[in-house]
């Protein structure tokens, strides 16, 4: 009995030593963590998880999971009438989509490859968890499909929590380069600012140089919808000649669609290195919806330029060529009529020859039949 008592006390003593040792070992491991090299990808995931705490307000308002509704969903997805299927799918998501089943539904719907269904799902998901919806879509959808549907996520995100959306994309500039993130955030920045000059601070907030360039272009495009003259001033303030030219073309593309003559006037007063590309863009856009008016105005500008220098069209030469090809691709008879209306004989001859070359490639016999009515070199 004495031996047994001694062995028990020895056992207790050994257990005690073991636990004390574990405690010290645990403390040593805990204290040593600062020396451990952690996988950067894990840090990124931890930071992202921490950032989601700022979005708990929306997520806490997410609908509760209703349980198994697989049979209802299968019946809806089996509907052959597209409009009816999409309407029923929206209703299903309104009643059944929750944090617990969102990723499962995404996996199921994305395999079908139907863009409208994916966009509806992502839009609904984004109402309570846009960051997760965006990241899952980015990681799993083919690039072309992601580009098509991601704006639905971002629009919901910006509507519900613009500050969180901006923080996320500024922390993840490579993601910002995809889809329409920057343009949607730029549009929101314009709505929120009282002073256009403050937009430069918004642009500088993007740490990546390439993203900054895209942000500048997006600001110009979005601001042009509200005030093209102010947008034009941002273009004129740009110091990088190549970026300035790109910004000018983007500005003019939208401006020419609603007020082409004002766009032409702006280009005429802009620096000379912008004239050729910007004027070409004006007349390419203008010709797409009012070729007759565009051609008449281009002829007026050409005649005015030739009265100053009979040997050079200067920046109008490219615009003339772009317009000729644009109208020839739409209506060859109208293109010939326009070419024949040019007063300067050398330019008229050059224009008609180019138009008939295009026509020959499409229908040689028809082109020759019309061409014989003109005396061309």
Keywords:
mainly alpha, 78% helix, single chain, 377 residues
In terms of topology, how is this protein built?
Blueprint: H1 2-32, H2 40-51, H3 56-60, H4 70-77, H5 82-96, H6 102-112, H7 115-125, H8 130-140, H9 143-160, H10 162-171, H11 173-176, H12 181-192, H13 199-204, H14 209-224, H15 228-237, H16 241-258, H17 260-269, H18 272-289, H19 291-308, H20 316-330, H21 332-340, H22 345-362, H23 364-371
Helix pairs in contact: 4-5, 5-7, 6-7, 7-9, 8-9, 9-10, 9-12, 10-12, 12-14, 14-15, 14-16, 15-16, 16-17, 16-18, 17-18, 18-19, 18-20, 19-20, 20-21, 20-22, 21-22, 22-23
Shape: flat
Whole-angstrom Rg: 32 Å
Give the class from helix and strand content and strand pairing.
Answer: mainly alpha
Portion in beta strands: under 5%
**Pattern of helices and strands:** HHHHHHHHHHHHHHHHHHHHHHH
Number of strands: 0
Count the DSSP helices: 23
Mean pLDDT: 79
Major sheet details = none
pLDDT < 50 stretches? 1-60
What's the helical proportion of residues? over 70%
Amino- and carboxy-terminal Cα gap: 128 Å
